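Hi R.,

Here's the chain you asked about this morning:
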Amino acid sequence: MKTYTKFLIFSFTKSFLFVTLVLLGLIIILNVLSELEFFKKLNVSSFFPIYLSLLNAPSFIFEMFPFIFILSTQLFFVNIFEDNQIQIFKYSGLKNIQIIKIISVTTFILSILIIFFFYNMSSSLKSYYLELKIKYTADGKYLAVVTNNGLWIKDVVDENIYIVNASKINENFLINAFITKFDNQYNVIKNIKTNKINIKDNNWLIYDPIIFQENTKEKINSMKLYSNFNHEKIKNLFSNLSSLSLNELIKLKKNYDSLNYSSTDVSVQIQKLISYPIFLTMMTLLSSIIMLNSKKLKSNTLKLVFGLFASVIIYYINNFFNILGNTEKLTVLTSVWIPLSLLMFINVFYLRKINEK
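And the predicted structure, written out as tokens:
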């Protein structure tokens, strides 16, 4: 590897680590303030909110990597502009496009490492964070999970415990469900078997239930059962996909499909992770183009503001298309790859004459 290549990789990586650590510190401070507000009326140790903040911070950092790479690239170019190193590279025959190529490849490699190592770590910490915090929320005693055996719900109503298993979800209905009612000592009170339950609201309507109680069997036309869950709440319980690793997302998608439950959100998240290295590389390219095309701007602050403004626009466009994908207005592939393709086109268009800058 040539000396100038090592130097450029080292300088860019140094800028990346600096920006990441600065933003990590800010995120931890904001998280601590948020957790202190949450726990102000609860009896917990003073270190516990800080501990939760540290667990939650990597997940926020992952979401901010597009901005981190924008800022890192800008900081990298600011440093080589101020020391006039860019002119030294030009005199040595190193063109702008070669500099961009080196830092783009570095970004792509860092992005791969981020997906396979940092994301898996941050999702595990996020999962543990949610597991700890939910104990202090009103929903701490409730649970809903999707496995290859269907949907499982644990609910507590009037000191009675309900365990619900359904093989499928069809719109507002649980299909092929079995409910076991326990007292607070987990002694079985009765079992309910049904082919269909309407869970549109919290007052579940159970169709043609078969009730097993004290060695007797009874079939009735319908019955109502109050639950802390409804269709909307069950759907929202699985919306925090950042707490799942890539392998867990793939497994969850298979479980959703077997349950006949919409896996669109999971598919969008998987595609976002697959495309993430390309997206971060495109952000580095865009930032490089902005810095090399805005040398007439003497103020580095203006360059940084312009770069951040562009990245914010891209971020919201990207989120807009993701929402269209999640709501099935667009296909999953279209919602993820159209904004990325537009970003690629913009970069390629402005890269054509970058050596003249």
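The chain has a mean pLDDT of 84.

Let me know if you need anything else.
M.
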